[in-house]
UniProtKB/TrEMBL annotation:
InterPro entries: Archease_dom, Archease_dom_sf. Keywords: Calcium, Metal-binding, tRNA processing. Belongs to the archease family. The keyword Metal-binding applies. Residues 26-150 form the Archease domain. This is Archease.
Length: 151
């Protein structure tokens, strides 16, 4: 990704999501001004592997709560819940809202049922595994949440 494209005039990164590769594996990353925002954007990056979020309307809401031993596992659990909803309920998501209370996550996904006419004949989501999961705070208080994905 072009570094200049994600930095504001103040030198602080814009919140964004992105895809990356590491050792021939596809990854998803969210960069935000809070850990919550980084989690939201990582989930959006995950969903963008399947459907362009701009083509999804927010007609349905998914509510998720998770508790884990550390933030890395919490991110993996959150992403697994999103993939589970994409698979079991055939949902596609436009955006997310996350609230963290320590190691407790309370999240909401907003989207709609998958449809070929709106979302194209894309990847059939059945599940995913996550490796290389990392949640970290960098310079200037910017948070990065990322994971390697195997559908």
């Amino acid at each position: 990704m072009d570094v200049e494209a994600v930095h504001s005039e103040e030198g602080r990164p814009h919140a964004h999501w992105e895809h990356f590769t590491r050792d021939e594996q596809l990854g998803v990353r969210g960069v935000g001004h809070s850990m919550e925002q980084a989690f939201e954007l990582t989930a959006q990056a995950l969903c963008a592997l399947v459907t362009d979020p701009k083509r999804v309307e927010a007609h349905e809401e998914l509510e998720v709560s998770c508790h884990s031993a550390d933030h890395d596992q919490l991110l993996a659990d959150w992403l697994s819940a999103v993939v589970g909803a994409m698979a079991a309920r055939r949902l596609r998501f436009q955006c997310f809202a996350v609230r963290l209370d320590g190691l407790n996550l309370f999240g909401h996904g907003f989207g709609e049922r998958a449809g070929v006419e709106r979302h194209g004949a894309n990847v059939a989501v059945t599940g995913a595994t996550f490796t290389g999961v990392s949640v970290r705070q960098g310079p200037g208080g910017v948070w990065t949440a990322e994971a390697l994905v195997d559908f």
